């Protein structure tokens, strides 16, 4: 019974991975389509291109999540558990992609606010500041994670 449940969970993760990859590829294709065929460079050209870039960056983040799900839950069954270092690298990559997406959104909104109403500029500026703090948080996470990895390696060697 336990083996059957594990197989069901494995197939559920595989299905989720396939769905995420499909959504990601669709998002990238749609974004490219929008830029090539529906962007009027005179009106909001840069803004539309930046929105498409942001959507593609988010699609890459979705692909990374799908890869992580697949590797962790489907492939892991036949391999050893991931090391702390590999998990940190994966989380870092996903978080960097999210921070880039937030920064791009702030940039898009700055262009929009700058052309429409200057009074709207503080809101996208706050979004960019949030992205900066997210990167600072990532740096702190990296520093603490590397310290923990080194301590774990030292304790494993002494055991």
The computed structural class is mainly alpha
Beta-strand content estimate: under 5%
Count the E strands.
0
The major pleated sheet works out as: none
Q: If you compute it from the alpha carbons, what radius of gyration comes out, rounded to the nearest whole angstrom?
A: 21 Å
| Number of helices, counting only DSSP H or I runs of 4 residues or more | 4
Could you tell me how far the N terminus lies from the C terminus, measured between alpha carbons in angstroms? Answer: 37 Å
Q: Helix-strand pattern, N to C?
A: HHHH
> Which stretches are poorly predicted, pLDDT < 50 over at least 5 residues?
none
Overall geometry comes to flat
On the 0 to 100 scale, the average pLDDT is: 80
> Helix content range of the residues, please?
over 70%
Tell me what the structure shows.
The chain is mainly α and 159 residues long. 87% of the residues lie in helices and 0% in strands. It contains four helices and no strands.
Key attributes of the depicted protein:
159 residues; mainly alpha; 4 helices; flat
Would you summarize the structure shown here?
The protein has helices at about 1-40, 45-75, 85-115, 120-159. By secondary structure, it is mainly α. The model has no long low-confidence stretch (mean pLDDT about 80).
């Amino acid at each position: 019974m336990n083996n059957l449940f594990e197989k069901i969970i494995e197939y559920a993760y595989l299905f989720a991975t396939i769905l995420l990859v499909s959504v990601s590829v669709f998002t990238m294709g749609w974004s490219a389509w929008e830029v090539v065929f529906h962007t009027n460079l005179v009106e909001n050209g840069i803004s539309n291109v930046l929105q498409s870039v942001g959507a593609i960056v988010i699609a890459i983040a979705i692909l990374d999540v799908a890869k992580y799900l697949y590797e962790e839950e489907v492939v892991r069954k036949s391999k050893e558990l991931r090391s702390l270092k590999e998990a940190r690298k994966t989380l870092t990559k996903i978080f960097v992609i999210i921070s880039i997406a937030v920064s791009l959104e702030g940039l898009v909104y700055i262009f929009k606010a700058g052309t429409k109403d200057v009074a709207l500029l503080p809101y996208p500026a706050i979004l960019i500041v949030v992205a900066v703090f997210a990167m600072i948080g990532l740096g702190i996470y990296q520093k603490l994670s590397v310290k923990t990895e080194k301590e774990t390696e030292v304790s494993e060697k002494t055991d």
